[in-house]
Amino acid sequence: MPRWDELWLDTHLATMAPGGTAYGAITDGALAVQGERIAWVGRRADLPDAPDQLASRVTALAGAWLTPGLVDCHTHLVFGGHRAAEFQRRLQGESYESIARQGGGILSTVDATRAASEDQLTTTATARLATLHAEGVTTVEIKSGYGLDLDTELKMLRAARRVADRFPGTVRTTFLGAHAIPREYQGSADDYVESVCRQMLPAVIEAGLAEAVDVFCERIAFTPAQTATVFEAARAAALAVKLHADQLSDSNGAALAARYGALSADHLEYASVEGIQAMAEAGTTAVLLPAASYFTHADRFPPIARFRSAGVPMALATDCNPGSAPATSLVLMLNLACTLFRMTPEEALAGVTRHAARALGLSDRGTLEIGQRADLAVWAIDEPAELSYWIGANPCIGVICGGQRVLTRPASDGATDRPGPV
Ligand code: NIG
Ligand code: FE
Question: Which domains does the chain have, with CATH numbers?
Answer without folding.
Answer: 4-68+365-413 (2.30.40.10), 70-359 (3.20.20.140)
